[in-house]
């Protein structure tokens, strides 16, 4: 058979397979925009900020939609009421985690973040218990954060009011907290190896939020055949794995089962206890992957939020000034802030909450997954459907926020100035898959930011007008533009 005939036959077979798959689409799915074979809805999707397309489409198709990302079917949930009904009221049906292709390529299904079933249950229960035992959300952790904040303050003082990029100063500070929990040690700010690892972590997040990263997750079989950034990122992640393996080996060599020092020690002890259990999930593959999960998630999300917070305070100097006055009145400038101070700093607390809401750091949320067929709002959702409970639509829900598109701490303040909660404040998601490190992140944001404002006033060389608060990249995450920070001692 000649080449043209072979290509024609191949094309006909592919077309027939596509037609058959399209004709066999499940019935009683939620409505959604018309999708093309193979491509789905990607040609009409804003690839720079897909969550914006989902919000726009929901005005036509409602808060529960079916979209196709390539050939992959996805259920998009829009608005607080819809997301809460799924993740909280029907938690067991929506507890699955989607096999995101790029993460799957790196972790092979191991670890806490993307596992399901018994693996996820065992690892989540162990991780929560162990992190709490080592002080997450408690006084012991508070002392670590207070100590680390002093290292940060000393480092910034050395700048002597010269402009600098705060990105890796903040990431080193935050990373040292998770390193204390997981590895049992902190790293010096001049440690070049740690800085290199943090640059890799930043690069992974940027890749995942880029158009190329989204294309990888939509057409992994195709992108794997092509040269591109994904190859560099995969090689970079291998360096993170090598670092984790070396730390695990160090712990293994010096392990004292009666005196665990950190998360790795506790995991190794459990691994030894269950070495004869064929159903255990405590193995080296899950340890390496979970260490990577905690290291990546525990570093970049909180440090990026802090970077956004300082940016917004520069852009709104009147808010920065009011926070400093409140902090001076309650704490002064000598004593380190503690979590107990939060209830006496309602305006400061409101600003921190509003930063998280306005920043909208993970607008798409981590994708969930149906591990079995479910019913939701009268629709039938087949097994193996990706679920996108969009946090962007929750943090911008006009039914719950007076000015959802404006940075305004009044969203968290009563008329008398007291702090008020809002049920639609879900930056850490909700339900059984909510962020394991939420209490740690909340403590870090409060203590680090209050400590910084106690000692410095923050500006930038071009003044407030030069600050661009809209994200530089919007994809999996909203990532801020780089800027130069001037920290003037008070």
From TrEMBL:
A biological process from GO: organic acid metabolic process
Segment forming the signal sequence: 1-23
Chief location: endoplasmic reticulum
UniProtKB keywords: Endoplasmic reticulum, Heme, Iron, Membrane, Metal-binding, Microsome, Monooxygenase, Oxidoreductase, Signal
GO molecular function: heme binding; iron ion binding; oxidoreductase activity, acting on paired donors, with incorporation or reduction of molecular oxygen, reduced flavin or flavoprotein as one donor, and incorporation of one atom of oxygen
Gene Ontology cellular component list: endoplasmic reticulum membrane
Family matches, as PROSITE patterns: CYTOCHROME_P450
Statement: the UniProt record of this protein carries the keyword Endoplasmic reticulum: yes
Cofactor(s) recorded in Swiss-Prot or TrEMBL: heme
Pfam families: p450
SUPFAM superfamilies cross-referenced by the UniProt entry: Cytochrome P450
Localization per record: Endoplasmic reticulum membrane; Microsome membrane
Protein residues bound to heme: 435
Highest rank taxon of the organism: Eukaryota
Bilayer-spanning residue ranges: none
Gene3D superfamilies: Cytochrome P450
Family, similarity comment: Belongs to the cytochrome P450 family.
Protein name listed in UniProt: Cytochrome P450
Organism expressing this protein natively: Pangasianodon hypophthalmus
């Amino acid at each position: 058979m000649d080449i043209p005939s072979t290509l024609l036959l191949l094309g006909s077979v592919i077309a027939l397979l596509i037609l058959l798959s399209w004709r066999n689409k499940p019935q009683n799915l939620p409505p959604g925009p018309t999708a093309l074979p193979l491509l789905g809805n990607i040609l009409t999707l804003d690839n720079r900020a897909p969550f914006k397309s989902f919000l726009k489409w929901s005005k036509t198709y409602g808060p529960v939609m079916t979209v196709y990302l390539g050939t992959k079917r996805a259920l998009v949930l829009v608005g607080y009421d819809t997301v809460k009904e799924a993740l909280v009221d029907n938690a067991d049906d929506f507890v699955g985690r989607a096999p995101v292709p790029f993460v799957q390529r790196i972790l092979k299904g191991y670890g806490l973040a993307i596992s399901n079933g018994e693996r996820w249950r065992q690892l989540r229960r162990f991780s929560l218990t162990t992190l709490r035992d080592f002080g997450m959300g408690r006084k012991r952790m508070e002392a670590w954060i207070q100590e680390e904040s002093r290292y940060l303050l000393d480092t910034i003082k050395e700048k002597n009011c010269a402009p600098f990029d705060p990105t890796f100063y903040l990431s080193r500070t935050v990373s040292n907290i998770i390193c204390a929990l997981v590895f049992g040690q902190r790293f010096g700010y001049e440690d070049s190896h740690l800085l290199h690892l943090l640059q890799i972590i930043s690069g992974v997040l940027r890749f995942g939020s880029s158009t190329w990263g989204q294309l990888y997750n939509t057409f992994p079989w195709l992108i794997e055949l092509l040269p591109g950034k994904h190859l560099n990122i995969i090689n970079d992640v291998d360096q993170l794995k090598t670092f984790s393996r070396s730390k695990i080996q160090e712990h293994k060599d010096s392990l004292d089962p009666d005196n665990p020092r950190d998360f790795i020690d506790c995991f190794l002890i459990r691994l030894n206890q269950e070495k004869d259990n064929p159903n255990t999930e405590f193995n080296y593959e899950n340890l390496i992957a979970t260490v990577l999960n905690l290291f990546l998630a525990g570093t970049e999300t909180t440090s990026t939020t802090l970077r956004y917070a300082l940016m917004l305070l520069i852009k709104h100097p009147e808010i920065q000034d009011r926070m400093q006055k409140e902090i001076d009145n309650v704490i002064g400038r000598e004593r380190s802030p503690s979590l107990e101070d939060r209830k006496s700093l309602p305006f400061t607390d409101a600003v921190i909450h509003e930063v998280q809401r306005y920043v909208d750091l993970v607008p798409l949320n981590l994708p969930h997954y149906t591990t079995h067929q479910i019913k939701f709002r009268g629709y039938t959702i087949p097994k193996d459907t990706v679920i996108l409970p969009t946090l962007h639509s929750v943090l911008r829900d006009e039914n719950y926020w007076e000015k959802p598109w404006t940075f305004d701490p009044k969203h968290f303040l009563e008329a008398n100035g007291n702090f008020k909660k809002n049920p639609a404040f879900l930056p850490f998601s909700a339900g059984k898959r909510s962020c394991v490190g939420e209490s740690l992140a909340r403590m870090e944001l409060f203590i680090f930011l209050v400590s910084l404002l106690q000692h410095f006033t923050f500006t930038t060389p071009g003044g407030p007008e030069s600050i661009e608060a809209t994200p530089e990249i919007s994809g999996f995450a909203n990532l801020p533009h780089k800027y130069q920070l001037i920290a003037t001692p008070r």
